[in-house]
Amino acid sequence: MTTGAITTGNWGEFDLIARLFRPLAAGTPGALELKDDAALLTVPPGQELVATSDALVAGIHFLSDDPPDLIAKKSLRVNLSDLAAKGARPAFYLLSAILPRGTSREWLQRFANGLAEDQAAFGIGLVGGDTTTTDGPLTLSITALGFVPTGRMVRRSGARPGDAIFVTGTIGDGALGLLVSRGGLAALGSASRAHLRSRYRLPEPHVAFGSHISSFAHAAIDVSDGLVADLDHVLAASDVGGRLELGRVPLSPPAQDALASGAARLEDLVTGGDDYEILFTSPPEAWAAIRAAAGGLPVTEIGTVIAGQGLAIAAPDGTPITLARTGFRHF
Ligand code: ADP
Ligand code: MG
Questions:
Q1: Does residue 329 belong to any structural domain of this protein?
Q2: Looking at 149, 174, 200, which one is the last position of a domain?
Protein backbone atom coordinates (compact mmCIF):
# COMPACT_ATOMS: atom_id res chain seq x y z
CA MET A 1 0.00 0.00 0.00
CA THR A 2 1.64 3.26 -1.03
CA THR A 3 0.41 6.67 -0.06
CA GLY A 4 1.71 8.90 -2.83
CA ALA A 5 3.90 9.07 -5.89
CA ILE A 6 7.65 9.29 -5.42
CA THR A 7 8.70 12.80 -6.35
CA THR A 8 12.12 14.29 -6.88
CA GLY A 9 13.98 12.91 -3.89
CA ASN A 10 12.67 12.65 -0.36
CA TRP A 11 13.55 14.68 2.64
CA GLY A 12 15.93 12.96 4.97
CA GLU A 13 14.65 12.21 8.46
CA PHE A 14 16.12 15.36 10.00
CA ASP A 15 14.91 17.65 7.21
CA LEU A 16 11.50 16.15 7.62
CA ILE A 17 11.44 16.83 11.33
CA ALA A 18 12.75 20.37 10.83
CA ARG A 19 10.46 21.33 7.97
CA LEU A 20 7.26 19.55 8.84
CA PHE A 21 7.16 18.84 12.53
CA ARG A 22 9.14 21.67 14.14
CA PRO A 23 6.60 24.31 13.05
CA LEU A 24 3.90 22.23 14.76
CA ALA A 25 5.85 22.42 18.03
CA ALA A 26 6.43 26.17 17.87
CA GLY A 27 5.18 27.95 20.95
CA THR A 28 4.36 24.80 22.90
CA PRO A 29 6.16 24.93 26.25
CA GLY A 30 8.30 21.89 26.87
CA ALA A 31 8.58 20.83 23.22
CA LEU A 32 12.11 22.28 23.19
CA GLU A 33 11.59 22.90 19.46
CA LEU A 34 11.96 19.12 18.96
CA LYS A 35 15.71 19.66 19.36
CA ASP A 36 16.25 17.40 22.35
CA ASP A 37 15.74 13.68 22.89
CA ALA A 38 12.63 14.22 24.94
CA ALA A 39 10.05 16.83 25.84
CA LEU A 40 9.92 18.29 29.34
CA LEU A 41 6.32 18.88 30.40
CA THR A 42 4.87 20.67 33.38
CA VAL A 43 1.55 19.70 34.95
CA PRO A 44 -0.22 22.76 36.40
CA PRO A 45 -0.76 22.73 40.18
CA GLY A 46 -3.96 20.98 41.18
CA GLN A 47 -4.14 19.02 37.92
CA GLU A 48 -3.32 15.47 36.87
CA LEU A 49 -1.99 14.24 33.54
CA VAL A 50 -4.29 11.98 31.49
CA ALA A 51 -2.46 9.95 28.81
CA THR A 52 -3.95 7.99 25.91
CA SER A 53 -2.59 6.45 22.71
CA ASP A 54 -4.21 5.20 19.52
CA ALA A 55 -2.55 3.84 16.40
CA LEU A 56 -4.14 4.02 12.96
CA VAL A 57 -3.11 1.70 10.13
CA ALA A 58 -3.86 2.28 6.44
CA GLY A 59 -6.42 -0.17 5.16
CA ILE A 60 -7.80 -0.76 8.64
CA HIS A 61 -8.58 2.61 10.25
CA PHE A 62 -8.54 4.74 7.11
CA LEU A 63 -8.12 4.11 3.41
CA SER A 64 -4.69 4.78 1.98
CA ASP A 65 -6.07 7.07 -0.70
CA ASP A 66 -8.00 9.21 1.79
CA PRO A 67 -6.88 12.88 1.72
CA PRO A 68 -3.71 13.25 3.85
CA ASP A 69 -5.05 16.20 5.86
CA LEU A 70 -8.07 14.10 6.85
CA ILE A 71 -5.87 11.13 7.81
CA ALA A 72 -3.85 13.49 10.02
CA LYS A 73 -6.96 14.92 11.65
CA LYS A 74 -8.53 11.53 12.24
CA SER A 75 -5.31 10.29 13.91
CA LEU A 76 -5.38 13.22 16.28
CA ARG A 77 -9.14 13.26 16.81
CA VAL A 78 -9.51 9.64 17.88
CA ASN A 79 -7.13 10.49 20.71
CA LEU A 80 -8.91 13.75 21.54
CA SER A 81 -12.10 11.72 21.80
CA ASP A 82 -10.51 9.55 24.50
CA LEU A 83 -9.39 12.62 26.43
CA ALA A 84 -12.86 14.15 26.14
CA ALA A 85 -14.48 10.99 27.53
CA LYS A 86 -12.17 11.19 30.54
CA GLY A 87 -13.06 14.83 31.21
CA ALA A 88 -9.57 16.00 30.27
CA ARG A 89 -8.52 19.17 28.48
CA PRO A 90 -6.10 18.46 25.59
CA ALA A 91 -2.58 19.83 26.05
CA PHE A 92 0.16 17.92 24.22
CA TYR A 93 0.68 15.07 21.79
CA LEU A 94 3.47 12.88 20.45
CA LEU A 95 3.39 11.43 16.95
CA SER A 96 5.07 8.27 15.71
CA ALA A 97 4.89 8.36 11.92
CA ILE A 98 5.78 5.09 10.17
CA LEU A 99 5.85 6.10 6.54
CA PRO A 100 5.93 3.90 3.45
CA ARG A 101 9.16 4.48 1.52
CA GLY A 102 8.66 7.04 -1.20
CA THR A 103 5.88 8.98 0.50
CA SER A 104 5.89 12.26 -1.39
CA ARG A 105 6.72 15.67 0.02
CA GLU A 106 3.37 16.93 -1.16
CA TRP A 107 1.59 14.20 0.77
CA LEU A 108 3.63 14.94 3.89
CA GLN A 109 3.00 18.68 3.66
CA ARG A 110 -0.74 18.16 3.34
CA PHE A 111 -0.58 15.79 6.31
CA ALA A 112 1.24 18.41 8.42
CA ASN A 113 -1.24 21.10 7.33
CA GLY A 114 -4.07 18.93 8.61
CA LEU A 115 -2.36 18.58 11.96
CA ALA A 116 -1.76 22.34 12.14
CA GLU A 117 -5.45 23.08 11.56
CA ASP A 118 -6.62 20.70 14.25
CA GLN A 119 -3.96 21.84 16.71
CA ALA A 120 -5.42 25.33 16.40
CA ALA A 121 -8.99 24.07 16.56
CA PHE A 122 -8.52 21.97 19.69
CA GLY A 123 -5.72 23.80 21.53
CA ILE A 124 -3.09 21.06 21.54
CA GLY A 125 0.62 21.20 20.60
CA LEU A 126 3.12 18.66 19.24
CA VAL A 127 5.93 17.92 21.69
CA GLY A 128 7.75 14.94 20.18
CA GLY A 129 7.59 11.65 18.40
CA ASP A 130 9.48 9.37 16.09
CA THR A 131 9.73 9.00 12.35
CA THR A 132 10.67 5.90 10.42
CA THR A 133 9.94 4.19 7.12
CA THR A 134 8.41 0.84 6.28
CA ASP A 135 7.64 -1.49 3.39
CA GLY A 136 4.28 -2.04 5.05
CA PRO A 137 1.23 0.21 5.32
CA LEU A 138 1.30 3.79 6.57
CA THR A 139 0.95 3.65 10.36
CA LEU A 140 0.37 6.61 12.64
CA SER A 141 0.50 6.38 16.39
CA ILE A 142 -0.42 9.38 18.48
CA THR A 143 -0.12 9.71 22.22
CA ALA A 144 -2.23 12.56 23.57
CA LEU A 145 -1.83 14.14 26.99
CA GLY A 146 -4.40 16.24 28.76
CA PHE A 147 -5.09 17.80 32.12
CA VAL A 148 -7.86 17.10 34.55
CA PRO A 149 -8.37 18.60 38.02
CA THR A 150 -6.89 16.20 40.58
CA GLY A 151 -9.24 13.31 41.35
CA ARG A 152 -11.75 14.23 38.63
CA MET A 153 -10.90 11.89 35.75
CA VAL A 154 -14.09 10.08 34.71
CA ARG A 155 -13.38 6.35 34.75
CA ARG A 156 -15.09 3.39 33.15
CA SER A 157 -15.60 1.92 36.57
CA GLY A 158 -17.93 4.40 38.28
CA ALA A 159 -21.40 3.36 36.99
CA ARG A 160 -23.97 2.71 39.73
CA PRO A 161 -27.35 0.96 39.71
CA GLY A 162 -30.03 3.58 39.07
CA ASP A 163 -27.83 5.62 36.71
CA ALA A 164 -29.26 6.43 33.33
CA ILE A 165 -27.11 5.61 30.29
CA PHE A 166 -26.60 8.50 27.88
CA VAL A 167 -24.87 8.91 24.54
CA THR A 168 -23.94 12.03 22.58
CA GLY A 169 -24.61 12.62 18.88
CA THR A 170 -25.71 9.78 16.64
CA ILE A 171 -24.59 6.17 16.39
CA GLY A 172 -23.71 4.12 13.30
CA ASP A 173 -22.67 6.87 10.89
CA GLY A 174 -18.98 5.91 11.05
CA ALA A 175 -19.65 2.27 10.19
CA LEU A 176 -21.99 3.31 7.37
CA GLY A 177 -19.41 5.86 6.19
CA LEU A 178 -16.85 3.09 5.80
CA LEU A 179 -19.34 1.19 3.63
CA VAL A 180 -19.84 4.32 1.52
CA SER A 181 -16.06 4.81 1.21
CA ARG A 182 -15.88 1.27 -0.18
CA GLY A 183 -18.55 2.00 -2.77
CA GLY A 184 -21.52 0.63 -0.80
CA LEU A 185 -24.95 2.13 -0.01
CA ALA A 186 -25.28 3.28 -3.62
CA ALA A 187 -29.07 3.56 -3.23
CA LEU A 188 -28.81 6.44 -0.72
CA GLY A 189 -28.83 10.00 -2.04
CA SER A 190 -25.49 11.67 -2.67
CA ALA A 191 -25.91 14.13 0.23
CA SER A 192 -26.54 11.25 2.65
CA ARG A 193 -23.57 9.34 1.33
CA ALA A 194 -21.34 12.41 1.67
CA HIS A 195 -22.52 12.96 5.25
CA LEU A 196 -21.79 9.37 6.23
CA ARG A 197 -18.41 9.27 4.53
CA SER A 198 -17.39 12.46 6.26
CA ARG A 199 -18.41 10.98 9.64
CA TYR A 200 -16.04 8.07 8.93
CA ARG A 201 -13.15 10.20 7.69
CA LEU A 202 -13.41 13.09 10.07
CA PRO A 203 -14.87 12.26 13.49
CA GLU A 204 -15.89 15.17 15.71
CA PRO A 205 -14.40 14.69 19.18
CA HIS A 206 -16.62 16.27 21.84
CA VAL A 207 -13.85 18.16 23.61
CA ALA A 208 -16.00 21.05 24.84
CA PHE A 209 -18.68 18.74 26.24
CA GLY A 210 -15.96 16.53 27.73
CA SER A 211 -14.61 19.43 29.73
CA HIS A 212 -17.88 19.40 31.74
CA ILE A 213 -18.60 15.71 32.18
CA SER A 214 -16.73 15.21 35.43
CA SER A 215 -19.44 17.32 37.09
CA PHE A 216 -22.24 14.84 36.28
CA ALA A 217 -20.87 11.55 34.86
CA HIS A 218 -20.21 8.58 37.14
CA ALA A 219 -18.56 6.63 34.30
CA ALA A 220 -17.71 7.34 30.66
CA ILE A 221 -16.06 5.86 27.57
CA ASP A 222 -15.60 7.03 24.03
CA VAL A 223 -17.52 4.88 21.56
CA SER A 224 -14.91 3.53 19.16
CA ASP A 225 -15.37 -0.26 19.00
CA GLY A 226 -19.18 -0.18 18.85
CA LEU A 227 -21.89 1.11 21.18
CA VAL A 228 -22.76 -2.30 22.62
CA ALA A 229 -19.14 -3.42 23.10
CA ASP A 230 -18.17 -0.14 24.74
CA LEU A 231 -21.21 -0.16 27.01
CA ASP A 232 -20.24 -3.72 27.98
CA HIS A 233 -16.79 -2.41 28.92
CA VAL A 234 -18.27 0.20 31.25
CA LEU A 235 -20.65 -2.26 32.90
CA ALA A 236 -17.93 -4.88 33.41
CA ALA A 237 -15.46 -2.33 34.80
CA SER A 238 -18.16 -1.03 37.16
CA ASP A 239 -19.33 -4.53 38.15
CA VAL A 240 -22.95 -3.71 37.34
CA GLY A 241 -25.51 -4.75 34.74
CA GLY A 242 -27.49 -2.69 32.26
CA ARG A 243 -30.51 -2.45 30.00
CA LEU A 244 -30.16 -0.96 26.53
CA GLU A 245 -33.22 0.07 24.53
CA LEU A 246 -32.27 -0.13 20.88
CA GLY A 247 -35.32 1.90 19.89
CA ARG A 248 -33.90 4.92 21.73
CA VAL A 249 -30.44 4.83 20.13
CA PRO A 250 -30.08 8.15 18.25
CA LEU A 251 -29.65 7.77 14.48
CA SER A 252 -28.89 10.43 11.87
CA PRO A 253 -31.40 10.91 9.03
CA PRO A 254 -29.02 9.15 6.56
CA ALA A 255 -28.68 6.21 8.97
CA GLN A 256 -32.48 6.07 9.30
CA ASP A 257 -32.73 5.99 5.50
CA ALA A 258 -30.19 3.18 5.33
CA LEU A 259 -32.29 1.21 7.85
CA ALA A 260 -35.61 1.93 6.16
CA SER A 261 -34.28 0.85 2.78
CA GLY A 262 -32.92 -2.41 4.21
CA ALA A 263 -29.33 -1.44 3.29
CA ALA A 264 -28.27 -1.72 6.95
CA ARG A 265 -29.55 -3.42 10.09
CA LEU A 266 -29.87 -1.72 13.47
CA GLU A 267 -27.61 -4.44 14.92
CA ASP A 268 -24.86 -3.36 12.52
CA LEU A 269 -25.13 0.27 13.60
CA VAL A 270 -24.87 -0.41 17.34
CA THR A 271 -21.93 -2.79 16.90
CA GLY A 272 -20.15 -1.02 14.03
CA GLY A 273 -17.66 1.25 15.75
CA ASP A 274 -15.89 4.44 14.65
CA ASP A 275 -18.57 6.64 16.23
CA TYR A 276 -16.37 8.71 18.58
CA GLU A 277 -19.37 9.70 20.63
CA ILE A 278 -19.25 9.82 24.44
CA LEU A 279 -21.20 7.15 26.31
CA PHE A 280 -21.69 7.96 29.99
CA THR A 281 -23.82 7.14 33.00
CA SER A 282 -25.30 9.71 35.37
CA PRO A 283 -28.07 9.91 37.91
CA PRO A 284 -31.25 10.73 35.94
CA GLU A 285 -31.67 13.97 37.90
CA ALA A 286 -28.43 15.29 36.34
CA TRP A 287 -30.39 15.85 33.15
CA ALA A 288 -30.57 19.65 33.47
CA ALA A 289 -26.81 19.92 34.03
CA ILE A 290 -26.18 17.60 31.08
CA ARG A 291 -28.37 19.66 28.79
CA ALA A 292 -26.65 22.87 29.86
CA ALA A 293 -23.20 21.37 29.20
CA ALA A 294 -24.24 19.94 25.84
CA GLY A 295 -25.23 23.23 24.22
CA GLY A 296 -26.26 22.25 20.69
CA LEU A 297 -24.89 18.70 20.95
CA PRO A 298 -27.69 16.12 21.17
CA VAL A 299 -27.54 13.85 24.22
CA THR A 300 -29.94 10.90 24.40
CA GLU A 301 -30.89 8.57 27.24
CA ILE A 302 -30.68 5.00 25.90
CA GLY A 303 -30.86 2.75 28.94
CA THR A 304 -30.39 2.11 32.63
CA VAL A 305 -27.70 0.72 34.91
CA ILE A 306 -28.98 -2.08 37.17
CA ALA A 307 -27.53 -4.26 39.89
CA GLY A 308 -26.04 -7.55 38.70
CA GLN A 309 -24.06 -8.31 35.60
CA GLY A 310 -24.39 -8.32 31.84
CA LEU A 311 -26.29 -6.22 29.32
CA ALA A 312 -29.93 -6.92 28.48
CA ILE A 313 -30.83 -5.53 25.06
CA ALA A 314 -34.42 -4.73 24.09
CA ALA A 315 -35.34 -4.46 20.39
CA PRO A 316 -37.44 -1.43 19.34
CA ASP A 317 -40.62 -3.51 19.85
CA GLY A 318 -39.51 -4.35 23.40
CA THR A 319 -38.55 -7.99 22.87
CA PRO A 320 -35.23 -9.09 24.34
CA ILE A 321 -32.55 -9.87 21.77
CA THR A 322 -29.07 -11.33 21.71
CA LEU A 323 -26.48 -10.01 19.28
CA ALA A 324 -24.12 -12.35 17.44
CA ARG A 325 -21.27 -9.86 17.88
CA THR A 326 -21.05 -6.78 20.05
CA GLY A 327 -18.37 -4.74 18.32
CA PHE A 328 -15.19 -4.47 16.34
CA ARG A 329 -12.46 -6.93 17.32
CA HIS A 330 -8.91 -5.97 16.45
CA PHE A 331 -7.77 -9.62 16.48
P1 ADP B 1 15.91 9.56 18.59
O2 ADP B 1 17.19 9.36 17.85
O3 ADP B 1 16.05 9.66 20.06
O4 ADP B 1 14.83 8.64 18.14
P5 ADP B 1 14.96 11.45 16.76
O6 ADP B 1 16.12 11.86 15.95
O7 ADP B 1 14.02 10.44 16.25
O8 ADP B 1 15.46 11.03 18.20
O9 ADP B 1 14.09 12.71 17.10
C10 ADP B 1 14.67 13.97 17.28
C11 ADP B 1 13.62 14.91 17.82
O12 ADP B 1 12.58 15.03 16.88
C13 ADP B 1 12.99 14.42 19.12
O14 ADP B 1 12.71 15.58 19.89
C15 ADP B 1 11.71 13.80 18.67
O16 ADP B 1 10.72 13.89 19.70
C17 ADP B 1 11.36 14.65 17.47
N18 ADP B 1 10.56 13.91 16.48
C19 ADP B 1 10.95 12.90 15.68
N20 ADP B 1 9.94 12.47 14.90
C21 ADP B 1 8.87 13.22 15.24
C22 ADP B 1 7.50 13.25 14.82
N23 ADP B 1 7.02 12.41 13.92
N24 ADP B 1 6.70 14.16 15.40
C25 ADP B 1 7.18 14.99 16.32
N26 ADP B 1 8.42 15.02 16.76
C27 ADP B 1 9.27 14.15 16.24
MG1 MG C 1 13.65 8.62 16.72
A1: no
A2: 149
